[in-house]
Amino acid sequence: MSRSDGVVRVETFAYRGKTYEAPVFDTEAPVVLTARPNDIARPLPAESPVVRCLHSIWNLAEFEVPRSPVSLGALTADEIAVFATQDAVRVLDMPIKMPDCAEYRVPRALAQFAGALQRIIDVEHRVNPHHADYHAYLTVDQRWVAPGTLHREAPCHVDGFQGARWSPKCRTNHTYTVSDLLPTAYYVQPFDFRALDERLHDYFWEMNAQVADTNEAHRWQPCPAEITMMDCYCVHRGVENDGTKPVFRTWMRLSFEERRRVFDRLGNAHNPLFEYEWPMVDRDIEQLHLRAFRESSDASLRVFPWQDLDGTPLPPGTPKTKPRLRT
Ligand SMILES: [Fe+2]
User: Fold this and answer.
1) For residue 28, how far is its CA from the centre of ligand 1 (angstroms)?
2) How far is the CA of 239 from the centre of ligand 1 (A)?
3) 158 alpha carbon to ligand 1 midpoint, in Å?
């Protein structure tokens, strides 16, 4: 498959120094998936906090309960070979399922991900009786990762954090991810945010700080190609390529978000297989002008990756700033 197969063009959006590329897909020969929940051999463990919190309302106190993602098992070698086919187009948070619609509609340019998606949605419809209330947003990112760098540089964070913008709070999200190598690191430890103010403080920087407090002692990683389900309380971060050669990594995420959670950020891909028109807005965490709760902590723990330790934007092409999570 070549990149042009099903991709009409790639649009570029830039704001606050960052660039986003969004492919425009055609509608020919789509891949349409429906769940087969009865094909699941065993249900997910009910005792997992991730499973327990599914379809619940966002509650900051849940960060105090350590939690690891739930495993769905790994892709087989044959499945990995298809999943990791080169020249996949990158997409960010594109809806492939809408509320009140049971179909997952995938442009054919992303057909290589159908096998992994089928495994995920079979589990989703088994574990979540409220699936009709949810969107499913697909993100795909594939590229070479140079030694000493990360595929997707970020602080410790969660997907689906509900800050001050979300009032009243929505239901929690849950997210399935899989990558063929460099599996994400999770921090299975309690996090305490009781002293923070969501209007003032950057919670991700405080996650950095609390992970650094423990010297990364509670870091946990799934196996390569293992599909996992996490929720919005699973603190995580990508891992560096600590080898000596570049590696080619394919990473996929499917996020389930309740019907109020419309992902209208400029740069997210549009799915032409659904009829919807969302006014897209430029939005990122930087515009909130949040500050670190611990203003005297190690500077690397409280800057964005694109900033140096003083907060100055790094020149293009320079290595990103990484949080020092271990002494
Ligand atoms: Fe993430």
Assistant:
1) 31
2) 11
3) 6
What local confidence, expressed as pLDDT, does residue 231 receive? 98
- Cα 34 to ligand 1 centre (Å): 26
**What percent of the chain clears pLDDT 90, i.e. is strictly above it?**
79
| C-alpha of residue 159 to centroid of ligand 1, in Å | 5
**Res 1 pLDDT > 50:** no
The pLDDT tens digits for 180-192 are 999 999 999 999 9
Quickly count: other Cβ atoms within 10 Å of residue 88's Cβ.
21
Instruction: Using alpha carbons, list the distances in angstroms from residue 145 to 83, 155, 303, 307.
Output: 17, 17, 22, 20
* Token code pair at residue 272: 């032409």
**26-81 pLDDT tens trace:** 999 999 999 998 888 777 899 999 999 999 999 999 999 999 999 999 999 999 99
CA distance 240 to 39: 36
Rounded distance from Cα 296 to ligand 1 centre (Å):
26
- Distance (angstroms) between ligand 1 centre and the Cα of 256 equals 14
For residue 151, the CA-to-ligand 1 centroid distance in Å is: 12
| Alpha carbon of 33 to ligand 1 centroid (Å) | 25
29 CA to centre of ligand 1 in angstroms? 31
Selection from 137, 116, 111 nearest residue 265 by Cα: 137
